[in-house]
Structure formats: C-alpha cells, structure tokens
Known about the structure:
Elements: E1 4-7, E2 10-13, E3 18-24, E4 33-39, E5 46-51, E6 58-60, E7 68-73, E8 78-83, E9 92-99, E10 111-112, E11 116-121
Parallel strand pairs: 2-11
Antiparallel strand pairs: 1-3, 3-8, 4-5, 4-9, 5-6, 7-8, 9-10, 9-11
Amino acid sequence: QVQLVESGGGLVQAGGSLRLNCAASGRTFSSYTMGWFRQAPGKEREFVAAIRSRDGSTAYTNSVKGRFTISRDNAKNTAYLQMNSLKPEDTAVYYCAASSTWTFSAYEYSYWGQGTQVTVSS
C-alpha cells in the first residue's frame, strides 16, 4: 500500500515556475513508476510525465517537453515535478500516482494523491 500527498501548487503568472512535490508512504516507493497527471475543468485526466523505478528513465507528454522535469529521491520517498515557463493552458489539478509497471496510462496507476491546484494567469 502506498499513500501519496502532493504539495506545491498555487497561482503563478505566465512564464513563472512551480515545483510540485509528491511525498509517499511505505518502504517500497523505489520499486514504483511515479507519474504526474493533470485534469483541467471539463477535460479528461491526461498524462504529463513519468519516471521509471529502476533506472530513472523519464517520459513527457509533448506539450511539456523542455519546460517540465520529473525527478525522484528514493531516500526521501518523494517525487517532484519542476514546471518552468508555465502557460495558462497548464492550469489544472495535478495528481501524482504510482504504478508497478512502466506506463503512461492512468488506468494502470494503482495509487493516487488527492491533487494540487495549479493556476497560471495570463
């Protein structure tokens, strides 16, 4: 069982930066793929980024490549999403999630945080 708690969301102007944190409970954090997803009002939840457990390989959706960076600190049981050059279209509730497989599909993530709001003003 893994419990996830996000923090770090907020209101920022376009072009600004935020870092989201995802603190995990449990001693098996290092064995999970960690992913970040987001959901804007009236839209489906979409994949943002993922980081593999074994080798730290990363993957991003095209719209955030070059602006967002996912990372993890297994010693601290924490995953991060550094978001730079934010745009109004990045406004959404951001969720971190854990999966036992390397996947970009929300359906294959077993554990989810409660979400944190990110609002980017123009």
